[in-house]
Design brief:
Bound molecules: protoporphyrin IX containing FE
Shape: globular
Largest sheet: 9 strands, antiparallel
Number of helices: 13
Helix content: 10-25%
Radius of gyration: 22 Å
Structural class: alpha+beta
Strand content: 15-25%
Length: about 425
Amino acid sequence: MTEQDLDRTPPSTSPRPPAGPAVGRRGLIGYVGSAVVGAGVGAATGAAVASATASDEVVQRVGETLSPYGRHQAGVTAPMQACSETVALDLLPAVARAADRDALARMLRVLTGDIEAFMLGRGAPGDPTPWLSSAGADVAVTLGLGHTFFTDAWGLPAPGGFEPVPPMEHDRLQERWSGGDLVLVVGGRDATTVGHVVRRLVADVAPFATLRWRQQGSWNGFGADGGRVTGRNLFGQVDGSANPAPGTDLFDRTVWINGGAWQHGTTLVVRRIRMDLPTWDGLTRAEQEQSVGRDLATGAPLTGGAELDDVDLQARRDGAYVVAAGSHVRRSHPDLNGGRRIFRKGANYEVLTEEGSEAGLVFASYQANLSGQFTPLQQAIDAEDLLNEWTTAIGSAEFAVLPGFEKGGWLGQSLLGDS
Ligand code: HEM
């Protein structure tokens, strides 16, 4: 933190609770009513709420500042966050039947107001416990829509190539971790804040949609010296090295939709991939490294170089490929997949079960064109990949991630016009 930052740090006391009479969030929003929430946090939401937020004009100031505004949703490119929850919701049956675009627009405005407030580090409008989402938590929330909105009933245009991922031979998908009409990806630096943000968002969207699944994950993106590092999955592998870097042309081409109503949006695939840690632990280090094609300790290619270097797929030793034919990085490498790339951003999970525990990766992948980029890669891995022996997808879902919003605007505005 710089001296300037310290100057801007508010007194150590927590934000004050809302002054005046408590306002029920449900009553405040009134999806069927005319209250407009969202455009500018707290705008038109009543005096009680305004006093809870505007008087505490606290802007995210610690760590990597994440602005909620911009052409793209900031959560997509936000650095790997320590805690994350990916939350899928289902439309209420009556909402699904009505397929009312105006109601959808109102819901998106409400969510925009919440997301704006959380990312700016203040309680959402009407939050009875605003202390739980104070500045400095580096909260980012990313919102996406499921396939249901692109059916005849809703009639919204889908992003090009936004098709369901077809079944894979190695999949063992469970309904409880699959599908969903809406997704919220909430990231932050601590689980208390992230959990609170999730609870508030789910409560605020309750007149419209109900929780379907909730997947928690964690990631350690910092090294021993406190600097940013790529981070590791639960196999101990450095994971994310070959990702296109945000801010580069390659990233933009890989991730952002270019043109049409979805301009500046993207698509998201979430797959819950169980990892068999006990059998993995039983392998030799050489076997573990062969199955991926990179050094376990450093993440560098087995063909030499440093972590961020590309693997040399042609290199041979004693007549055989150094990076094995079935290794994960060979099978998923753009050179062997028609140049296709994706941007991976998973999080590790471990949950206690009656048998002991289950561990894996909440795999997340962003790409401009889902069926043009992700699906063929997934099919190549499904057909052959040494890692398949220790990894099993048990959940799968796809979402179209809305373009970002500017101050005064709302998520989905380009899609729904001024409903
Ligand atoms: C639990 C499952 C998985 C594990 C443990 C895993 C692990 C890894 C590791 C350690 C790397 C090398 C370092 C890096 O570049 O990030 C890697 C690379 C990669 N993985 Fe995965 N991965 C998994 C699932 C997937 C899935 C489902 C896909 C896509 C369908 C995928 C696509 C890729 C791609 C495209 C690369 C980069 C290849 C390159 O350009 O060198 N991975 N993965």
